[in-house]
Amino acid sequence: MKTFRKDFLWGGATAANQFEGAWDVDGKGASVSDMCTNGSHTEPKKVTRTIHPEYLYPSHEAIDFYHHYKEDIALFAEMGFKVFRLSIAWTRIFPTGMENEPNEAGLAFYDKVFDECLKYGIEPLVTISHYEMPYALIEKYNGWEARECIDYFLNYCKAIFERYQGKVKYWLTFNEINGGTTPLGNLLSLGTVKGYEGKITEIPDDPKVRFQALHHQFVASAKAVKLAHEKYPEYLIGDMNVFMTKYPFTCNPEDVLATQKEMRIMNWFCSDVQVRGEYPAYMERYFEENNIHVKMEPGDEEILREGCVDFYTLSYYMSSCVSKDPNGEQTDGNLIAGLKNPYLKASDWGWQIDPQGLHYSLNEIYDRYQIPVMVVENGLGAYDKLEEDGSIQDDYRIDYLRDHIKEMKEAVKDGVDLMGYTPWGCIDLVSASTGEMAKRYGFIYVEKYDDGTGTLARRKKKSFDWYKEVIASNGENL
Question: Gene3D superfamilies attached here (predicted)?
Answer without folding.
Answer: Glycosidases
